[in-house]
Design goal:
Layout lengths: L6 E3 L3 E3 L2 E7 L2 E5 L3 E8 L3 H4 L17 E8 L8 E10 L8 E2 L2 H16 L2 H15 L12 E7 L4 E4 L13 H19 L5 E10 L27 E3 L5 E5 L1 H8 L1 E3 L10 E2 L5 E2 L4 E2 L9 H6 L1 H8 L12 H12 L1 E2 L6
Antiparallel strand pairs: 1-8, 1-18, 2-7, 3-4, 3-7, 3-13, 5-6, 7-11, 9-10, 9-11, 12-13, 14-15, 16-17
Helix pairs in contact: 2-7, 3-4
InterPro entries: CRISPR-assoc_prot_Csy3
Protein name: Type I-F CRISPR-associated protein Csy3
Length: 346
């Protein structure tokens, strides 16, 4: 099956910005501020001492000892504050049941049949469990997971509340404690229903409570800056403006979403890390595509096999999606991520 010149899906998971704040007497929301620091750094890069041929540059020895002054933004927990909060909202929709836009009716029919079969055999339960894992593990906190204690609290529009006392001991591959497993199961069921039922309007508010050290450094999102005017910080951090005009350190919604999408450990039978869902299995840390087209495991190769996968699911017997082949889970996870999948003009 070829995708045609127009094929797109709307994303099914839509997180908001994650905002850092703390509490004090008389106020439950005090924005965590960003500060500007002027520092005298060091000249330590490779190009300061060597050329591209690895030959030492002709320079006086004292030149490499001079300082390298620049301005940066930084973020720290205020003194006498030992608990910090980070909160975001998440909207989940059943957008993978059908393409958002298409120009081939035949392609639309096959993809709708794929989603229907996937729903009937409990496939969305497997995806929801993986998304819920990343929420409850606090993967979306990124470098800020390193704390003296991380509690996760999820409140949903269905009136439920799911709490993890300390997410630091939870691992992607290891079994979870009984109580944490119960919480994971409850959150997964609600998310699976929202992913597969277009009449379900589901939201959640996710809050992490971090026990921090004295004036501990916090790592919000970095702003992408191409050209910096003289005197402005060369490293700028993300903020969100509050109702009173103050600004709070934050994560971009895209960074939160990237953490929730780190569920692809189907890329190899002995996979040792879950990748962020991507059409070519991009591992940005190792700068390699683990689902390169030459492997035959990329999204577009699987999309071409849609009709075969529909027939294959007829032999699945479990109601929780546990016997659905990994390739189908991966294919559906990309459709949930959303994007433009058309073949384009030749």
């Amino acid at each position: 099956m070829k995708p045609g010149k127009h094929l797109s899906y709307s994303r099914s998971l839509s997180p908001g910005k994650a905002v850092f704040f703390y509490q004090r007497e008389g106020c439950d929301f005090v924005p965590l501020a960003i500060e500007v620091n002027k520092i005298n750094g060091q000249k330590s890069s490779f190009s300061e001492g060597y050329d591209n041929q690895f030959k030492a540059r002709q320079s006086e020895t004292k030149e490499l000892a001079y300082g390298n002054p620049h301005t940066i933004e930084a973020c720290y927990v205020p003194p006498m504050v030992d608990e910090l909060y980070c909160r975001f909202s998440l909207r989940v929709e059943a957008n993978s049941l059908a393409p958002d836009r298409y120009d081939e009716p035949r392609v639309n029919r096959w993809l709708m049949r794929l989603a229907q079969a996937y729903r009937d055999h409990g496939g969305y339960q497997e995806l929801a469990r993986r998304y819920a894992k990343n929420i409850l593990m606090g993967r979306w906190l990124w470098r800020n997971r390193q704390t003296m204690g991380t509690a996760i609290d999820v409140k949903t529009s269905a009136g439920s509340r799911f709490e993890i006392e300390d997410a630091r001991g939870l691992d992607w591959y290891e079994p979870w404690p009984q109580e944490a497993e119960r919480v994971l199961q409850g959150l997964s069921l609600e998310m699976a229903e929202a992913l597969s039922n277009p009449r379900q309007f589901w939201f959640s508010t996710v809050t992490a409570r971090l026990k921090t050290a004295f004036c501990q450094e916090i790592h919000p999102s970095l702003q992408f800056v191409e050209n910096v005017d003289r005197g402005l910080p060369t490293r700028q951090l993300a903020t969100v403006e509050c109702a009173d005009g103050s600004k709070a350190a934050s994560f971009h919604a895209e960074k939160v979403g990237a953490a929730l999408q780190m569920i692809d450990d189907w890329w190899e039978e002995e996979a040792d890390i879950p990748l962020r869902v991507h059409e070519y299995g991009a591992n940005r840390d190792a700068l390699v595509a683990l689902r390169h087209p030459v492997t035959g495991r990329d999204f577009y190769q699987h999309l071409k096999r849609t009709a075969f996968y529909i027939r294959q699911m007829r032999h699945c017997c479990q109601v929780d999606g546990s016997d659905i082949p990994a390739e189908i889970h991966y294919l559906m996870s990309v459709l949930l991520k959303g994007g433009l999948f058309q073949q384009g003009r030749a």
